[in-house]
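Input/output pair, single chain:
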Amino acid sequence: MKQQLANTVYILALAKKSCAFNAPSVSLHNDLGNPPHVLRRNIVHPSSNSKASFRSLIGRNRSPHFPITITPTILHASDGSPNEEATDGSSSIRQLLGVKGASGTTEKWKIRLQLTKPVTWVPLVWGVMCGAAASGNYHWMWNPFDPNDRDVVLGATDAAKGFVAMILSGPFLTGYTQTINDWYDREIDAINEPYRPIPSGAISEGEVIAQIWALLLGGWGIAYGLDVWCRHEFPTVLALSIFGSFIAYIYSAPPLKLKQNGWAGNFALGCSYISLPWWCGQAVFGQLDRPIYFIL
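Output:
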């Protein structure tokens, strides 16, 4: 009786494990020659004479050996089908933006741009604009609401600083973030999205590494240039850029890989996409104080 109870518990444990991993199926074959019973996401009990069938499943013998053989479960990944191009004529634009439905290309500059996912630059560019406005020191070339704020030269200078800060936050540091994320996800993408630039071989691994370093070091150079332009005694923009680059690295790279942790990953995303670009915009046109750190 104890042996049969142990067998029953073992069967239920296997069924639970099958459900937890969402396996396609687990077939349990009775050594006594009875038809196999298949366990799917929900345990399928025999439709008729369930008591007799269950007894035949666990076996009536008192052999110390477990009377059931287990067929190994085969986990099926993506079918590896190619990317389906959009049929509305936007496939070439989708390729440049780095979104699904993109057309294929062999032009390196397009592939490099696709790796940076320009569609993800928008929140950071907007964050820089918000930070500039929050500083209270951004000047318009011609402010329709304030007749005293219509200095064209000063407004053009501030517009240029803001544009450079957007280039820093968008194409360079966000491009670095997206490229390094694709680099560390290349093995997963080879299964789920084999048409992406890295797993498809559209760009070599050496070229990807070179792009990562170019975007990172280029971004840091621009950040330091902004500090010099704004005459910062402490290189605030460069410090923010280095910190953001570190967050981006540990978000994607092992052993920390924060993206696998819900709370830590969400905090890293919020910090990178909201706080840091806001701080950058405010640091370019004003000063960062404690309230802005705590609020964001």
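The first helix runs from residue 2 to 20. Confidence is low (pLDDT under 50) at residues 15-81.
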